[in-house]
Amino acid sequence: CINIVNADTTTIRNIHVAGCYRGIHLEYSVSNYGHVLVENCYFRDIYVPLGAYQPSNPQWATAVCIDRLTTSETVTNITITNSVAIRLDVFFGGNAFVDGLYLLKNTVSKCNGNCISLGGTNMRLAHSVFLRDDPKDLFLYGTTDVIIGTVSGINSIDNTDFNTRGEYEAGPDGCTIDFETSATGFSITNNTIYRSWGGGIMVFGHSTTSHGFSISGNVFAYDGCVQPRDDQAGIAFMCPGGH
Fold first, then answer.
1. Which of 17, 155, 162, 198 would staple 227 via disulfide (CB 3.0–4.6 Å)?
2. Contact, 17 vs 2, CB < 8 A?
3. Does position 183 have pLDDT exceeding 90, yes or no?
4. How far apart are the two ends of the chain, measured CA to CA in Å?
5. What is the rounded CA–CA span in Å between residue 9 and residue 76?
6. Stretch 7-27: mean pLDDT, rounded?
7. Is 0.90 topped by the overall pTM?
């Protein structure tokens, strides 16, 4: 719907976006551009076309997507606030390395894939609501509300309500917050995680795992109770290499 290349010091406000593969798509070919504010926007029905969906590589549709056009660009200071998204694959994602990401006071409901992907440095997700994110399609590697990749710096998820994260029947994940690779410097505080299909927080590992993070002041209720796999807990630790 909206595509902007090398946006810098840009405000996108009061936009209603529906039926797109990319709601707002920001692409960068130069480093240290950014300073973008997305505010008071409404996204709905952001889905990949049914005929294009592949369970092993779904290429999810995204409400706000930030991509770099080569491998070297760093995007700085992106804020998404006071926005609502309903019936969609992904709320925020892309392949860009972001230094300074602020996702504040947003509401996301009926999210089909990994709702938010965090990979970069100095990020905050706060004062938001995730409600009944229940996938309608199978993704072979599982889905989560927040998937955290290789991040560093000062990062936090705080004062957010995660309510009833679901999973496609017999899907492998359905956790609320997934530390997927190796994150450092992360704080998860004062959140409510209620009735997630899988673990409320899953700390997973491949060759390495996450470290140097804190989990405090959160409320976990009925998390992992119907998950047939190993992450049947409010907080589940999966050792590096899956052992």
1. 198
2. yes
3. no
4. 44
5. 10
6. 96
7. yes
Sheet containing strand 161-163, edge to edge, reads 16-18, 42-46, 84-88, 107-111, 129-131, 161-163, 192-194, 219-221
Contacts with 51 (C-beta within 8 Å, 6 or more apart), sequence order: none
Amino acid code (one letter) for 132: R
Distance, in Å, from the CA atom of 230 to the CA atom of 228, rounded to the nearest integer, reads 7
The answer to whether residue 234 scores a pLDDT higher than 60 is yes
The pairing of strands 84-88 and 42-46 is parallel
- What tokens appear for 46 in the block? 């952001």
Is the pLDDT at 102 greater than 60, yes or no?
yes
Please tell me the total number of residues recorded for the chain in this structure. 243
Burial class (CB in 10 A: 0-12, 13-18, 19+), 170: exposed
Say if residues 99 and 120 touch (Cβ distance below 8 Å).
yes
Tokens of 17: 């976006």
Tens-digit pLDDT profile for residues 116-143: 999 899 999 999 999 999 998 889 889 9
Assign residue 197 a region (left: φ > 0; alpha: ψ between -120 and 50; beta: otherwise). alpha
Q: DSSP assignment, residue 51?
A: G
Q: Which residues of 120-131 are buried (b: 16+ CB within 10 A; e: fewer)?
A: bbbbbbbebebb
Residue 173 one-letter amino acid? D
Average pLDDT over the chain, rounded to an integer: 92
User: What's the rounded Cα separation, in Å, for the pair 121 and 23?
Assistant: 24
Q: How crowded is residue 232: how many other Cβ atoms within 10 Å of its Cβ?
A: 14
Is 165 or 171 the better-scoring residue by pLDDT?
165
